[in-house]
Amino acid sequence: MPRILLAEDDEIMRITVQDRLAKHSWDVDAVANGLDAAERLRQGNYHLVISDIRMPGLDGLELLELVRTTSPFTDIIMMTAYGSVDDAIGCLKKGAADYILKPFNMDDLVIRVNRILEMQNIRARCSSLEESCREMHSEMIGDCGVMREVHSFIRQVAPTDSTILIRGETGTGKELAAAAIHKNSRRADKPFVRINCAAIPEGLIESELFGHERGAFTGAHARKPGRFEMADGGTLLLDEIGELPLPLQAKLLRVLQENQYERVGGIGTVTVDIRLLCATARDLEAAMEKGTFRQDLYFRLNVIPLVMPPLRERKDDIPLLTNHFLHEFSIKRGAAVEISDEAVQCLVAYDFPGNVRELKNILERASVLAPEGVITPSDLPRELISPAGEVGGDSFVLADGVARAEKRLIVKALARTGGKRAEAAGLLGISRKNLWEKMKLHRISCNSSQGL
Length: 452
What we know:
Shape: globular
CATH superfamily of the largest domain: P-loop containing nucleotide triphosphate hydrolases
CATH topology of the largest domain: Rossmann fold
Helix content: 40-55%
Number of domains: 4
Largest sheet: 5 strands, parallel
Structural class: alpha/beta
CATH architecture of the largest domain: 3-Layer(aba) Sandwich
């Protein structure tokens, strides 16, 4: 719900405007002077400030300057009964979103507020789109031997129109590899369209891929182009191709062979010219044995195979990736985030079953929790900290090893249950009282499980 701050020293005007704005489901806070408005701005965020220019303590122009410096994404409408054209121009030059003269029509004010909030929504959507574009065109980070081979392979195959099957574990950067192939191809100035076959319900995936005609099914009120049509002349990435339902696999095979298809509910043939890239983390050979993936389609897709290496096979790139992600987080938050050498060693020693995506998530979480802007081993999840760093970590005494293992299991159980002791005790097969005693013995708090 949009939040609006109203600053008006005239009580009748303040109550009238607040009541009218509140009828539109906007959350409106009203104050009688600029000083109270400044305090509200320090306490919370507002989408819009509506302020009178002449107020005691802190006038509207001073409040405008405060908003511009402390809350740049908040817009402000200035109100006055003593205005002129020059005053209006001056306010707009100083950053006001709008300027309105008293007395004004309440419907006019509502229209202005609606327009400003809609523009904020458009700016947010544009920002999201720009971010998606930046991610799509992000370069693959890595300079170790295996990544140099990947870069060389992409430069070699990108100029062709051959179908490429990109394989690798989750989080290894298969989409980035596909984007790099498109960027270095002869179709680089044409569309690059992506679709995740696992993220779309089975009943909708055919329409998403091939489009539909008006009236093809309930809710199909107009003709809609599919991803193949949108990618015409460019590149189409079918991510998680192993999740494509069998009936659509047959239709996809025909498209690859003939470059033609029909929209859902249509009889006309659509001809397309695309370069197809596919990506999957599934074992397609095992899927073929189970009968969930067509053998003929597999051979048609696997023209040029590209395997993305897991992060555990390119640990020399972890410091480089770490610096890249921390630089990215620092820019987004406007505050520098660093990492200690000891923390980097913990990252390098870890195998990262979630690969680069897991590394990025861990660093993002640590960068938020790091109290001094420097990530240390204590800011990392427990499984990343070397057992040798714990008390008694080098001991060969059986009791010490049992104690360490017991502590790790308790912490994992608490993490699995979100800190709920009764459920954690059930997982561990002990009583709640026994769990509480062991937590006290090992100095475990429920909050410590959040690091896992």
